[in-house]
Amino acid sequence: MYTDPTKTILVDADGVLLDWMYAFHSWMARHGYEIADPDDYKVSNMYNLETAEGNRLVRMFNESSAIRRVPPLRDAIKYIRKLHEEYGYVFHVISSISDDQYSQHLRAKNLRELFGDTVFERYVFLDTGADKDEALEPYKNSECIWVEDKPENADLGASLGLDAILMAHSHNIGYTGPAKRVSNWKEIYKYIVD
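User: That's the sequence. What structure does it adopt?
Assistant: Structure tokens below.
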């Protein structure tokens, strides 16, 4: 299924590789929405919307052409390229973006253009907001590094025997679970190579 578990890093895309929130906020502003609570993880709370409307807008954004130009998160490009080019690591993306094939194509294209053609060995695209249980199951007890920004998904990885790392954001500031919480990719890089 994958090459070498000691050289495979599992990653979420939004909030780990890509600054989805920045792109989404820009898109929402263009559509006339104002942020009510920037620190809330749920879009409905963030924009003071009904849950169904928040979910609809997230899906709309994820299936729009805007998903093609989501910028990288923090220092992701520098350190992911270093891990790949200098140490031979490959990355498997597990992203709950959409079940729409065109959206998935645009996501993969965005990632390849930012990080390079050889960094990502595998893409697993799930429906918007979908759980990652089945996608992570094949890696059970592999001790692969799993980088995620959603606490529940980081904890899921840890429970499956993965080396779970939680990318710090305001929505996970109070995290106290088993995953190692980091501020950026430089910390992940040092954790791996030191």
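The longest strand covers residues 90-96.
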